[in-house]
Amino acid sequence: GTFLEDASIVPVSSITGEGFEEFYRTLADLVSQVTPKPSTGIFRMPIERTFSKQGFGTVVTGIPVSGKVSIGDDLEVLPQGIKGKVRHLEVYKQTDDTAYAGECTAINITDVIYRDIKRGNVITVPGYFEPTNSFVAHLRILPKSPRSITNRIPVEVHTGTTDVMGRVLLLEGDTIEPGQNAIVQILLEREIVIGPLDRYIVRLIS
Fold this sequence. Notes:
The chain is mostly beta strands and 206 residues long. It has 2 domains: 44-124, Translation factors (Elongation Factor Tu (Ef-tu), domain 3), CATH 2.40.30; 132-204, Translation factors (Elongation Factor Tu (Ef-tu), domain 3, Beta Barrel), CATH 2.40.30. It is 6% helix and 45% strand. It has a 6-stranded antiparallel β-barrel with strand order 1-2-8-5-4-9. A hairpin with a 2-residue loop joins strand 12 and strand 13.
């Protein structure tokens, strides 16, 4: 009764190596069925890690959620508003001229101090996104949730690579019961960057 009920089962042995060829064929077949993320839209990448590499300077890593980025592009780190230029790119640990949405990407960016950036920030094209401390969203409560959602209930919000404390503001009614869904406004304790149709998760605070 789960999403794995029709998944292939391929026995393998780490001792004899038996079954690995079939495992790799099955895995390659599944990968070939994955629809690539479209590279249209404005480049935006939630930052997973930031560090300084000798001879290069500041590097940020993550997986772009939209658009593409190339060497020489101007970028901005939000919500700080720090601007820099792409000096070097790696895609899946290989040097490349362009990185696209859905690819594991490392960006070497100039004129930026790595200590000024942290996980959860977003790197994007300047002038398109503004940090916000609230957003309107569709919220669905899992049927097995032990609690209902009441107005202004405190929650922990996860989106992209960031998490932030906030409250759920009900736009209709007094509660959202398990299994129900509604349009709500999420009020945050600090500014983040979030785009249209981005997915998010809220966790109730025990």
